[in-house]
Write a structure and sequence with these properties.
The complex is a heterodimer of chains A (124) and B (241).
Chain A lengths: L1 H19 L6 H23 L4 H23 L7 H11 L2 H22 L6
Helix pairs in contact in A: 2-3
Chain B lengths: L17 H10 L10 H29 L8 H4 L2 E3 L2 E3 L2 H25 L3 H32 L13 H33 L18 H25 L2
Antiparallel strand pairs in B: 1-2
The chains are: A mainly alpha (124), B mainly alpha (241).
């Protein structure tokens, strides 16, 4: 009897989990993130509008870009509520792109240098 | 928060959190991505591959721009529009950004109402998302027309400076625009499925025996948010650099 009850209890629990499956979150969080993305977009647009230059421009562009990307992935794509196994499987491989970025920058510098030496007078 | 995997056996398997959770998920002789429908895991893996495609484009763009010996056309001026007799820099791109972010917001809410089985709201929000996406593509078509006809920018050269500007611009925005267009088509398909009640009746989809469930709205949402995500990067590195 106790065993059957236990089973029933476990079954009810299982159903509860089945209902909890899928991502259900209050609508407020989506509206807040939406507003935040609007503000961040306006800020990154104002970087261009107010003609910030140099390292400050780069810093601001990249900060706003990463903040927006993070908010979209974390909340809109529900990554913050997923298990770490999925999160790491998707996000860690993208770090490899940093290597490609570095190689690209090195190669571009070298190409620019050789073009200056051999093709374009007065560039260097 | 401790989660448990829904199973048919009496006692749900305990799922440890944190790093022990990763080891447990990957080492167990069962599916690695728990509490996630396989369709969603597959969409994430597709999006990872798409991330590499777009990143390769953007990194090649960086390489090409850094090594260009001619001056690079200033995007702030190229994409300026004259509104109310005043030239506003980059305004078209800014509006496109807001349109795409809004479509992401409505998509996120469509997913929420989908899981609540609120057919009407899900359908309306999906349609708004598709309409905003179509608006974005329309504005991009306007931008391309302006650049090709008025500014004389071609993939092989342009009167403003470095020839690489045109090829990179048309390839990256073209590839992104294609993604948005495909997304709009699939948003309409999913919206019709929702309205017909296919997802309530678990009706199998076209060319698949897979039963319709509201998780397909979320999977559609992942794709759509990704399109928005790519635009964040294009906006930052192509238009603001």
């Amino acid at each position: 009897m106790a065993h059957a009850e236990g089973q029933q209890h476990a079954h009810a629990q299982g159903q509860q989990h089945a209902h909890a499956e899928g991502q259900q979150h209050p609508i407020g969080i989506y509206l807040k993130i939406w507003a935040l993305l609007f503000i961040l977009s306006a800020l990154s647009y104002s970087v261009d509008y107010f003609h910030f230059q140099g390292y400050l421009r780069w810093f601001l562009i990249i900060v706003f870009m990463l903040l927006k990307a993070g908010l979209i992935v974390a909340v809109f794509m529900h990554m913050m509520w997923e298990r770490l196994a999925l999160l790491y499987a998707i996000l860690v491989p993208t770090l490899l792109l940093m290597v490609l970025l570095g190689i690209g920058a090195l190669e571009a510098d070298y190409t620019f240098f050789t073009r200056g030496v051999f093709f374009v007078k007065g560039l260097l | 928060m401790t989660q448990a995997m829904p199973t048919n056996i009496v006692k749900p398997l305990p799922l440890p959190e944190g790093v022990p959770g990763i080891v447990a998920d990957w080492s167990s002789d069962q599916r690695a991505f728990k509490n996630v429908p396989w369709g969603k895991a597959m969409m994430w893996i597709f999006l990872l591959s798409d991330t590499f495609i777009f990143s390769s484009f953007l990194i090649s763009y960086m390489t090409v721009r850094m090594s260009a010996t001619e001056p690079w056309p200033n995007p702030s001026e190229v994409f300026a529009l004259t509104l109310f007799g005043k030239s506003i820099p980059l305004i078209l791109i800014a509006i496109m950004t807001f349109v795409l972010i809004s479509s992401s917001g409505t998509m996120a809410m469509a997913v929420k109402f989908g899981y609540e089985k609120n057919k009407k709201m899900t359908f309306i929000l999906l349609l708004i998302t598709a309409a905003l996406g179509a608006t974005f593509v329309g504005m991009q078509a306007f931008e391309w027309t302006k650049l090709i006809l008025d500014e004389g920018i071609r993939p092989w050269g342009n009167p403003l400076g470095a020839a690489q500007f045109g090829s990179v611009f048309f390839m990256i925005t073209g590839f992104h625009g294609t993604h948005v267009s495909i997304g709009v088509i699939f948003l309409i398909i999913v919206a019709i499925k929702v309205l017909r009640g296919d997802l309530d009746h678990e009706r199998p989809g076209f060319m698949t025996g897979r039963k319709g469930k509201y998780e397909i709205v979320e999977i559609m949402g992942l794709y759509w948010h990704f399109v928005d995500l790519v635009w964040v990067f294009i906006f930052a590195v192509f238009y603001l650099w």
